[in-house]
């Protein structure tokens, strides 16, 4: 009973501690380096559990656990150690592996795979391979065993050389970097010393049956890694500075390789397109561009052949939910470890564009009717007059004024008057014509500009439909109210060649229309209206 308690304390408590280290490392960050460190901790946990069972099971079961489980896990630990230090201190060594993801698995699986092949090879050669291997130590005397031995030595030497070179690359001013490397080097050396010491004790039979202390080596290494992580932020100093800026930037940052694949993206980039940042990695940047703006993606990728930095550019992207967003981005071409990459800094300007669109709409449109306002009316008609003069075309400027609109306001109130004005705007909009430009000039006065006028009949036909639509009754407080409309027309270039002249002569025609015995008619400007202007006195 005392032995069980002793082995429980010796193996299972360190197993729990190793598992805790792995969980903490994994949840500190989800990048590849942290995942590798967590994997080493979890494998160490499993190894401690196996050590515990090796102390309580029969000899035959112990040998099975040792050969088929314990040793492959030890070799996998060494493989992950090498991968871990390569990723941490020598990122360019894995640049090819990042480009071709299948190569990433070569380092961690080669040594365990060779061991598995060795086991299968011996299973074919010997009727009881485990017993024969233990008796003759055949696992490490045949040719496959020699390959495994050489690979183990090569991996261990590669780890030591990698740490040594990392310490040489660290500048004298980076004292924390050098201290960190020394601590990790101590962890590796202690791990190797514990493994060697454990094997010596086992071969000299100085430890009880099944007892094994070599897993305390990887555990000590994990303690060193965790200490470095907390004390020195774990990553190399220059990586850490980049990481802080990269992940805390309010703008979305995308790192793009020459294939157009997103190499990395920060949290702001994920929020921008409605996805988690890790989900964006290894996905094509082209998928973010709106179909109508795909040419801008090709232009962006053309920067790889033109090193000049791009100026700020606005485009349209689509989110994960296929929603269109307006973005502004800056891009720089950079070289990192001999690999050319694009750094794309992106910010969402959708809200700004919406506000800008609203402001532009308010600047050019009447807020009550949605038609263009007087300001844009002057600007637009001036441009159209210049264009018509250049192309030899005819224009018609129509002014409309509601008949007895004041009576509607006085009887039903200004809210009812607003309803009537909106009704007029809808009536004008219902008569479809691509060559028509309409505006509300103020009060109950409206203007319509007809372009490409070929004859007066076309004007009469269009305006007849408009006036008929305006005359349709409007429901106000349960009453049907109908208003009439008078209209005056002047033509460019016959009646005037500038806006002021056309406006004044359309107004004269409108004045004549309202003064007629039958209102709600369309009146064209004639020269005799100039003679009767001062003598007319119709209430408008």
TrEMBL record:
The keyword Zinc does not apply. InterPro entries: Biofilm_reg_signaling, GGDEF_dom, Nucleotide_cyclase, PAS, PAS-like_dom_sf, PAS_fold, Rev_trsase/Diguanyl_cyclase. Residues 238-280 form the PAS domain. Residues 393-527 form the GGDEF domain. One of its GO terms (molecular function) is diguanylate cyclase activity. Coiled coil: none annotated. Keywords: Membrane, Nucleotidyltransferase, Transferase, Transmembrane, Transmembrane helix. The chain crosses the membrane at residues 6-27, 36-54, 66-85, 105-123, 143-163, 183-201. PROSITE patterns: GGDEF, PAS. The keyword Ribonucleoprotein does not apply. Its EC number is 2.7.7.65. This is Diguanylate cyclase domain-containing protein. It comes from Paenibacillus aurantiacus.
